[in-house]
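@channel sequence for tomorrow's demo:
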Amino acid sequence: METPLPKATQKRQVTAIIILLLLWEVGGEVIKYSVLEERHSGSFVANLAKDLGLGLGELASRGARILSKGNKQHLQVEHKSGNLLLKEKLDREELCGDMDPCILHFQVLLKNPVQFIQGELQLQDVNDHAPEFLENEILLKISESSHTGTAFPLKIAQDLDVGSNTVQNYTISTNFHFQLFTRNRSDGRKYPELVLAKELDREEQPELRLTLMALDGGSPPKTGTSQVLIMVLDINDNAPEFARQLYEVQVPENSPRGSLVITVSARDLDAGTHGELSYSFFQSSNQVIQAFEINTVTGDIRLKKMLDFEEIRSYRMEIEASDGGGLSGKCTVAIEVTDVNDNAPELTMSLLMNDIPENTPDTVVAIFGISDPDAGDNGKMMCYIQDHLPFLLKISAENFYTLVTEGALDRESRAKYNITITVTDMGTPRLKTEHNITVLVSDVNDNAPAFTQTSYTLSVRENNSPALHIGSVRATDRDAGANAQVTYSLLPPLDPHVPLASLVSINPDNGHLFALRSLDYEALRAFEFRVGAADRGSPALSSQALVRVLVADDNDNAPFVLYPLQNASAPCTELVPRAAEAGYLVTKVVAVDGDSGQNAWLSYQLLKATEPGLFGVWAHNGEVRTARLLSERDAAKHRLLVLVKDNGEPPLSASVTLHVLLVDGFSQPYLPAPEAEAADAAPAAPLTVYLVVALASVSSLFVFSVLVFVAVWLCRRGGAASVGRCSVPEGPFPDHLVGVSGTGTLSQSYQYEVCLTGGSGTREFKCLKPLVPNIMGEGVGTDTEENSNFRNHLGFN
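structure tokens (generated this afternoon):
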């Protein structure tokens, strides 16, 4: 039971048949050449370029090729000269047998664009074979009663040549009884006929021996001979007669050896030995004798070998029935070999492109021819490939197909195709041939590199070592080979003020980013740049990504004390009235830290004091306050060492020394500097010195009193006394010195009085003193809630 073909395949077959008919009508012109057989390889046939109307270089540029049926190539093209040459020595008898004319079909294939031209090469016969009799001796039994003029046909000679080169004439040696005539058979072959010219007399001459010669039409002619033995018999007046003069029979090819083909039968009215019949082939060719045998008694004709329809399609032979008296009768047997579908179609690949580039539609992948030596439906073929592939089969010429891409291929979607070309005949049972080809899609640079992220954020800690690997970017390319090899580079910076070339570098092979120098968080906290990725294809394709580098802070800046100043020519002394209660604000230590985050969180600690327990430092804002009530027993001069420490790891710190002077009131005329402590310990001066000092003190007190009066009037502060010119800055300190509350930096809730002290001598000092309205309104503040909190913070009750 036949399997129905898919509808898609049937549709392709109908399309292929229509295209074939159109091509047949358009390209029906055939170029024809002829050449003698047995010419040497490389012999000139014709100038193909001239006959096709092509220039001398066009055959090479268009890839001209000669295609022949099957895998046997008889011709070749010399591209340089455009000549068509023989590829090998051709034997007409081997290629065509006794077929005349002998025509070999071929096609000329031109590529770029694809074009087929049909061609025929007629192989002309050369007289290279001599006539040859199948038997060296021919036996004739002729009755002595035979009349003159009786004809006796003789067996013919075989000559593989055709036309005028085959047997043209027969002669016989000189004798007195017979003449030889050359006759023509219905198939055109010539045969010898012996005619009795003088009656025979058995008693006078019982046998004759003659020489039969066959001559062909060559120049000079070639000959073949056979001996004719004539035996003179007694009278036999009835010749055998066949029931039919023509027997016709059909024999399927591939029938087994020994199969009965047909039985011929004749009868003879004579009796005895004159009526005993013997059957034999008469004037049969080598092909008949090699393929058939006949039973001499029964007349059964059987196969000696299996017949091949593709080799010989019919046989014609003559059967002779001879009686014992020398008389014979003849009949003809015509055997037709019927075809059996015993040959699968053949596919011959003429051009195959295993590697085709992507993105190129209508690309020729393969050109091939198909053939089937069977006949009828057994030799009809159809060709198709599997469905759902981006390829098409187009008929280029009779039984020649071109496999092309249906559209542009995409290597990234599919890089390899396995195509099965199936050729099926229409015989019963159907035979098919499959040819598998593998097509690789080569890469074209049609994909730009793509970064794994559109933007990258990297972090690096400041004070890094140069050439530190800070991160990587990565891009991938879907192409292959050099088209997929990515090279990384830094693009021009977005901000022209950022010296990108001195900050980072990139490894062009793997995208690793490196810091070229040590980064400083305080100078540059973050910067952005673009990274490019380009492949190595032609043309090169590229893409880019944004990289943001964040510089992480490191605790590399120790706290810096803004107040009190430590580099003044004279240290600053804070004045505290003895009447001050616990929590009295003496001063505030102001410090900043260049770091950020917890590295800039400052804390304050009193490391050393002249009288421990008298003063305390607020840990979070650096305020120095009295820890208890002052008394007359407390020393007048105090030296405090305050430590300012950040919260980094490891923590960094700075220290500042404060001088505090306890006074009974702000009208005190003399404020000795801490440096005078050393002078107090000196031995008493002479009386003259004391007098001078007393006089100077009285004068200084007077001058000091005047200055205090002027200063109070100018500053309009009744509770504050000063020893020089005083000015109060309007508004808060600049923003860069203002911090968040609790960080230890300057707060906007404070104003500071700048005092400049001048007098005789070289002792000068500058002081920054906080002015707290709630506390300093009357000069001596009361015990407020803030003071209470402060005492509690310091651990005092």
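heads up for whoever presents: The two ends are 117 Å apart (CA to CA).
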